[in-house]
Amino acid sequence: MPEDDPIAFSLFIEWVYNGALPNVQSQGYVDSLYDLYIFAEKICMNSSDMKDYIMDKIQDVSRSHNLLPTPATVRKVYHKDRSEDSNLNLFCVQVLVFDLTMKWGNREVVGADWMRRKSFMDNLKQELGGLLELCKDNETLFNHFVWELYFKNNPEEAAVDPRRRDDSRPNSRCRFHGYHGNGNVCYQDKK
Ligand SMILES: [Zn+2]
After folding, report:
1. Of 28, 22, 86, nearest in space to 60 by CA
2. Does pLDDT of 155 surpass 70?
3. What is the pTM for the complete model shown?
4. Which of 36, 73, 92, 141 could form a disulfide linkage to 8, CB 3.0–4.6 angstroms apart?
5. Are residue 73 and residue 155 in the same domain, yes or no?
6. How many Å apart are CA 145 and CA 94, to the nearest integer?
7. 133 C-alpha to center of ligand 1: Å?
8. Which of 65, 101, 3, 185 is CA-nearest to residue 57?
């Protein structure tokens, strides 16, 4: 990865030296953070601290500017050479499902006039076309997507933005972190 992704590699060096990464509000930066996470996973560090830190950064930057993983990023995350059990996959698919249910879960359209319903259906068809394109060569992504959609049938659950972290609640703060317990303490508690 370092050779073909100089930005992610320079972020890796920055993290090694400073133990921190900047807050840059751009899609390109978030894309690099995903690359960096995949790299951190590849080098198999014993601790999940770095991955957990990058995950927090991905969540914060994505949320503050309403950014989603691009189709190219989703393909990298759901690449066949990666473990599908990664927290990055979980986060990625949950963000996609959250976005879809927020945009298209609008029941008002049921009683709306024909024109409005048609426009809604046309837009939805376009959106689903993009999703189909992403899933057609990727059964794992499709399975995860359908599972999350089914799970998110609960309206309360569906309204929770996966990009939102509540540091006062460990379940929310560490939702996409590695295993904590048995001596594995969250990096946030080591400060
Ligand atoms: Zn944690």
Report:
1. 22
2. no
3. 0.88
4. 36
5. yes
6. 8
7. 34
8. 65
